[in-house]
Amino acid sequence: MGSQQSRPRSPSTVSQTNTYYPSQQSSSWHHPGDQPPYHQQQRSQNPYQREYPLPVLMPSDGRVKVRKNSSPSTTSHTNSKPARARFKPLRAFSTFRFDHNPVFSPPRHTSSTTAAASTAGGGGAPSDGLPSQQQAANDMTSGGTTTLSTAVHPLAVNEEPTTGQTSSFNSNNSANSHQYVWIAGRKYNLVPASSYMLPCDEDEVSRLHLLHFMVRFAIQGNYLAPVSEVLRKGAKVLDMGCGPGAWSMEIASEYPKSQVVGVDISPMFPNDIKPSNCTFHQLNLHDGLPFEDDTFDYIFMRFIGMGIKAEQWESALTELARVLKPGGWIELTEVDAELYRVGPNTRELNQQLIQVMQMLHIDPYAGRTLKSKLEKISCLTDIQTTFISCPGGQWAGKLGQLALQSWQAYYHALGPKICRSVNMPFKEYEDKMESCWREADEYKTFENVHFAYAQKKAAPA
Length: 461
Known about the structure:
InterPro entries: Methyltransf_25, SAM-dependent_MTases_sf
Organism: Lichtheimia ornata
Helix content: 25-40%
Number of helices: 11
Mean pLDDT: 71
Domain Methyltransferase: 237-328
Strand order of the largest sheet: 3-12-13-11-10-7-8-9
Protein name: Methyltransferase domain-containing protein
Radius of gyration: 22 Å
Region (Disordered): 1-147
Order of helices and strands: EHEEHEEEHHEHEEEHEHHEHHHE
Low-confidence stretches: 1-172
Strand content: 15-25%
């Protein structure tokens, strides 16, 4: 990943077995074994028992090969290990178990490394790193609140926004004492130390669900790290930046012996209807995580690069590594802001977004540098990287339609900041966006989504 970061990556050579081609979405299946693709199988299978057919990949020759009348290869690898060894089958769903108990246990952290981030009352935590429900109830009734009157959202420069405030049970983390700002009809967070530019309203929840389904469809599963066995046996999992909690709940329902903790700066996750082995907490990573050292077997963090400034990546990953058990795995997913094979309007809009991100000290190329970011954390080893090229537009079948819808929602949410930065009326911006989506089909536009995972070194004997 390191030496080829300034150009579109080469599509891998993909064998003819279990290959996804968008042009086959409405045609018959032509594989030698007459195995129908996933979208044709699912109607005849129990939706709670199905498994995704996985692509069989061969190494790339390192050259860019533009494919005509089809998507860029959905998966390209930068490692020497066989690709099929890193793709693990994963059933999409199994039967949910619902927990209707309204009281859930807030996380507690007593490590000296981030003591300043949490000053809640003492008491030993249970073996799972979470306090009892009685402790949770006490925290909910005794905790104070903090008003963040000085917070300024990057989208709210030179405005007098209407704000609202909400507080949750744990006031020691700044994510839990909240103000919001409404801009162009969208609701945004006001949280100190956060650069996150995207909204936190119902439209954003829908976009994040769509993004989850798009990535799951593209990689034919929910993760790439080699954690299937530990999840089956029972693991403690942290979903950092869980959003509405789609990934957390799917993993929790798929692996009922595991305990999944979803964390996000915005409380857009469900509180009631969720698997009983899945809990959600409103926390800010930049304040330090209120968990004991070596708590989790697996940490998953996806698409929160907008909320991490370039200079904050090392401290954020160090904090995640702290709560990861020796021998545990951390997996990251980030998309590069740069789009490839673009028309003139798309190029202009894309460059404006990149400039705004750089102005706010957000790395627009965080995805392609995940490996180097992980290499800075001394306790991590066995770093593996890969990426997929996600096409956008009707030309690329189901995956392209999902990607295009995701782009549309993403650029619409970012419109206020881009318009302010380039002094463009929002109506003109919307018209330009519409021309971009037409260009996506004409130029066969795609983006690269990058994945990386690493293992924490075992504790010294």
